[in-house]
Amino acid sequence: ERHVARIERDGEVYQIFDADRLAMLDPLDGRYQESQYGWDGIDEPLLGFSLGYLARIVAERVENKGIGEAVVDGVPAISVAVQQEANADGGRRTEKATIYLDESFLPLKMELDGDAGGQYRTTHTYRSEYLARDAVAADFFSFDRLRAAAKTSDDNLREAAKPFGTAYWLGDPFEEMIVERVGAQTLDDGEPQLNIGYGAPNAGAGGRDAPFPCAHITQYTVRAWDDRQKLIAQNNPDAAKRVERDSRTVLGGEAHIFEQPADRVFEQPRIGDQPAPTPPTLAESSGWSAEITFPAAVVELIVSCGPPGKNRYRTLEGVRHLLDALQPFDAR
Is the pTM of this model over 0.90? Predict the structure, then answer.
């Protein structure tokens, strides 16, 4: 009870554990973020140390390629070589790993070698230890301190939206939803893409009939959007079945709202002793989206997520409401 645990990766502290709490270093900005473990009755720090490595050894469909002896930085080690076939972006990928553990089965080093159409290879060296609580700041695990150091959704969006200068979102929080994910990527044509995912904390926890609000925003350059539309026209014949239901001006951009009518209702299966879920109507099973064209970007708002009938934004009025709430974000 008087000790905490710490992992160094490549010479830098990047995880530190105390009871069921974890502070993890964000490599992008050097700040720590707080998260939690949820296993009761287990030595949480030891579990946190070991879980990611042991999972690679004992996970389903992992093939053991040999166990041997090794030395890592002068410390005797057990080397475990494994191989696993995984699905990645619709294709198969072979992942190989050599994991070096000390006599307590704590990680010392891990080498990853994979093939996903192109080779990638990484090696990280770890040092794992328990240390006296006074070796870290007395308030290190203070939730106020961790929240102050954690990256906010504004931070994440500002970083991800830099290629655009101006991004479009609903704010955070928005009604019962929060930003659950912000991501950026570079497409095959070299154009940037921005993704923002909204959802409600613990959505659906109240059972099959519980509300499940969610929405996704994707931002493209005009060139990337035009390229995407050409691919959709070639490869997705169902896209032609969508129907435009409304158009309006949003923040100076031209917005069009589309419904993708459902042709049938898929019943949700009953699980265990749970009551049978209320079956959705055909109209509730429709998918909804909106496209907003700005001079320098195209924003796609998709509201087809969540179980049919449980996402209150998955209607014409719901999409209108989200469009009215859209706001610019200056990332410059």
Answer: no
